[in-house]
Amino acid sequence: MTDYDPTEEQEEEQESQLKSIESTGSVTTEGRHQVHCLTIIGQVEGHYILPPQNKTTKYEHVIPQLVAIEENPDIRGLLVILNTVGGDVEAGLAIAELIAGMKTPTVSLVLGGGHSIGVPLAVSAKQSFIVPSATMTIHPVRMNGLVLGVPQSFSYFQKMQDRIVRFVTENSRITADRFRELMMTTGELAMDVGTSIDGETAVSEGLIDHLGGLSDAIDCLYRLIEEGGGSNGTGDPVHRTSSGNDISTR
């Protein structure tokens, strides 16, 4: 009969976590509550594989993770950490919609940058945080490469942009008019249309809920868990309200 060795089990768990971090950029932590940490970094990769030198977050990796987190009763909360330049619009919106529709308590934290499609991803959580040094770039939908110069192309871009505006305003405190104003500002970005805002401005504009760091985000997530899962008492997720195609927003 062999003796139980707790250190061996701990080593196996640490090795499993390291493999998870290397393959998916995520880890499940054992703190006051069991929390899954998901990182969205680099560029959100959609239907087309990006060059190997690009740092990417693959949506086909993230979507199954979110389903597994929602279905796992042992995982009490989700912390989403973002440092992204943007990427594929429909892939980013798909991930954001999944996060917004989760009953599992969710908190997002923007570090470095939450640019472009990173904005909907940041506001999709039930509570959002941003560090003072982080920035968020808001600009219209664009597309690289060949574009058919017909009215239908521009109509499609407009509809895609409307989807982004609607999602952001339904999941934050910023108004649609103000968000469009920031999106269409000229003279702010070199050779581009849009606005780059820092952490404090993102909060004052109502785009992000709180200014704070990692400990603030974790404390908020624990509070949501202990207050009843971040639901409204009926099991439905709480959504804040104000008053597709492989398109990149890089």
Q: How does the major sheet shape up? A: 7 strands, mixed
Run of helices and strands? HEEEHEHEHEEHHEHEH
- In the CATH scheme, the class would be Alpha Beta
Our Rg estimate from Cα atoms comes to 19 Å
Average the pLDDT over all residues and give the rounded result: 84
Q: What is the helix content?
A: 25-40%
Shape: globular
Number of helices: 8
Can you give a write-up of this model?
The protein has 250 residues and is an alpha/beta fold. It has 8 helices and 9 strands. The chain has helices spanning 6-24, 59-71, 89-100, 118-123, 151-170, 176-183, 199-204, 214-226, and strands at 26-30, 34-45, 56-58, 77-87, 106-114, 127-130, 135-138, 195-198, 210-211. Strands 1, 2, 3, 4, 5, 6 and 9 form a 7-stranded mixed sheet that branches. It has a two-stranded antiparallel ribbon with strand order 7-8. Strand 5, helix 4 and strand 6 (127-130) form a beta-alpha-beta unit.
SSE map:
Layout: H1 6-24, E1 26-30, E2 34-45, E3 56-58, H2 59-71, E4 77-87, H3 89-100, E5 106-114, H4 118-123, E6 127-130, E7 135-138, H5 151-170, H6 176-183, E8 195-198, H7 199-204, E9 210-211, H8 214-226
Parallel strand pairs: 2-3, 2-4, 4-5, 5-6, 6-9
Antiparallel strand pairs: 1-2, 7-8
Helix pairs in contact: 2-3
